[in-house]
Amino acid sequence: MLTVQHVDTYIRRRPIVKDITFTIAPGSIVGLIGPNGAGKTTLMKTILGLTKFSGTIQVAQAPVTETDHRALQHVGALIEHPAIYPFLTGLQNLELYSQDAADRQQLITALEMGDYIRQKAKGYSLGMTQKLGIAIAFLNQPQLIILDEPMNGLDVEATIGVRQLIQRYAAQGTAFLISSHILSELQRVMTHVILINHGQLIVDQPLQQFNQLHQQNYQFRTTAPQQTRQLLEAQQIAFTTHQPYFSVRRETIFALQDLLATHHIYLEELAPVEHNLEQTVVTILAQQREAAHES
Amino acid sequence: MRRSLRQEFYKLRHRKIVWLAPIILLVLMVMTGYAMGYNESKLSMATGYDAPDWIMLILVVVGATTFSMEFQNHAILTLLYKAPAKLDVYLAKSIVILGYNVFLHGVAILWTVLLCQTSLIRPVAWSTVYLYHQPLWENLLKTMAVDVVTTTLIISLIFLLSCLINNNAVVISVSLLVVFMGQFVSSNLLTANQGVRLLRWNPFNMTNLTREYYNYTTYYATSHLQNSQLLLGTLLYTGLFIVSGYLIFRKKRF
What we know:
Domain ABC transporter (chain A): 2-223
Distance between the termini of chain A: 37 Å
Keywords (chain A): ATP-binding, Nucleotide-binding, Transport
Order of helices and strands of chain A: EEEHEEEHHHEHEHEEHEHEEHEH
Structural class of chain B: mainly alpha
CATH superfamily of the largest domain in chain A: P-loop containing nucleotide triphosphate hydrolases
Number of strands of chain B: 0
Number of helices of chain A: 10
Shape of chain A: elongated
Number of domains of chain B: 1
Strand content of chain A: 25-35%
Radius of gyration of chain B: 19 Å
Oligomer: heterodimer
Largest sheet of chain B: none
CATH topology of the largest domain in chain A: Rossmann fold
Organism (chain A): Levilactobacillus acidifarinae DSM 19394 = JCM 15949
CATH class of the largest domain in chain A: Alpha Beta
GO molecular function (chain A): ATP binding; ATP hydrolysis activity
Number of strands of chain A: 14
Protein name (chain A): ABC superfamily ATP binding cassette transporter, ABC protein
């Protein structure tokens, strides 16, 4: 659906996006993660042909350039702020871009905007404006939707509503590129992770693979905790313990299982230590900083 | 392009100022009628009760907000990525405001005809010969047609300024300065008596086009250009401002 190849974006001769390459398949929900100033919004704007760039961007095999946006006909986006005209009602704001009244009405219902959709948008709250901006991005059954911080200003119910809407559209084949600072929320919907820092792509993986790779520790419990401790110390396997649990690094778990079996000690429980996305991202960024410092 | 045009027309027809403007124009024309006096019937009819000046004022406000509302409402990004090219957005805005310009002049003609039926001025037949040995009705139509050209120059300047400056108030202020102070700046330049042959082609001088059309003797002395020369200059500057505005818009970072 979306192909980004070796894309560089310069703003006032300063490189903001550096040699980024990735693809998004139909139906994927890609979470674009990175610290402030990493280049997330610039990358999104670049995909929408709003900045000068080098490299190749294609939407459904059609090229996007700064001067030719024809390939973006079936793309919806919410970038930075919702594009709302205060002198129009919510409905009129939708009518401005909408090609299908039924589709428009469906979105109004799905986002529960019926009560105020005929009021002038100048009286809308932050959350109402945000929902309207999201509805504009979802208009006309797009093949690709780009959302920059979509959950800004939304209450819990609205957040759940938007999440369900994203999942429904993805199930129908719409691809998503979503950036959000609320990683816990992003984690609930995304199927793929893209992590960028200083304009460079650091991680581009399916969420499942990302979780497996970055779950460093495993926690286990055995039938003989005292003997297990002695064995780990004797074999110099690094561990921490919160009795009756032991925690070891992921790469040691196969050797550990062999070791325990030879001593007729049996596992009662073995599971990866759940890291949330935030912790994982912070760890990766810290490792990257460390590596950069060393080099 | 069709979609961009539809969007621009949709926005224009939902703006309150757009529909209030004809009423404001009527009020201002009535005031002008009173100010000009009962016996200035021919001048009032030929100039549409000075509608050109009032239309200029309205267009400065409407034109200046055409671009700035996009920046202020954060709509420019959506507008740009949804349009096939930046040129479509720029052209659609230009065409729509030009259409509104023509509409306002049509309204001004209508108001003039209606006001002539009132006791505001001494009754004179529309077939009465007045400027350029032509009947009054022809004078009025030609004044309005010439003014469409003058106001298009101002619109092109407003668009150029709007692409340079995001702030609506600044664009309106600078545009009003150009419209209402421009001719004084130009006449001051030309009274210096040096380089008049070149200086008379300055863009400020072109704002005299309509006034010179209906008051040739007085304004020729100020502009040092004939009607046809002013018309040519106005068209050339309009083209220059529109192209420059687009080039700036194309390069602008959003």
